[in-house]
Model the fold of this input.
Amino acid sequence: MTTELRQAEERDHSRIVAAIESWWTDSRSPAAARELSLLVPRLFLQHFSGTSFVAEQDGRMAGFLVGFLSFDRPQDAYIHFVGVDPALRGRGLARQLYTAFFDTASRAGRSRVHCITSPANSGSIGFHRRMGFQLVSGDAEIDGVPVHQNYDGRGHDRVCFVRDISPLPAR
Ligand SMILES: CC(C)(COP(=O)(O)OP(=O)(O)OC[C@H]1O[C@@H](n2cnc3c(N)ncnc32)[C@H](O)[C@@H]1OP(=O)(O)O)[C@@H](O)C(=O)NCCC(=O)NCCS
Done:
């Protein structure tokens, strides 16, 4: 089946929310998956669709990436959220989404990409390592993984990733 990758649009918001609510129920309750979907409010698709991507197969959403160029840090870009349909994982879809983001960020003059995940998300940690991200030193360590304690508020520890990207000419 062919995968089509395209820039996200505002109309994708409801499908991204629905995807999070359905794809994440393998690891969470429906209520927790719904809560997770609140991490991608419509504003991301209104204001950052140019740096966000959707992968589709036969018109159905197969994966998405929500990212943006940092306003405050002119060298940096940030990947906020990524997800791939559990039935389609392990086929290079997230790699394609990340490559599209790296390309866009690099053409916009950015040289570094940041993202974070939860210490419990070993799949995400393995994926980001494989994608060439370094783990940023933290103030604690869990099973050899550097952790930033209370990074997103009390009890919300995070693992922080950073990766350099090669410069590309602007289009
Ligand atoms: C993490 C996630 C996006 C990966 O998507 P995917 O399409 O299966 O990933 P890909 O097939 O493109 O894999 C890219 C590379 O990462 C590796 N990889 C993918 N998942 C991995 C995992 N769980 N552990 C270790 N490595 C992994 C692949 O082997 C591949 O390596 P290679 O290209 O060098 O062979 C997907 O598992 C997912 O949606 N997880 C739930 C959401 C999530 O955790 N998001 C990240 C935090 S917000």
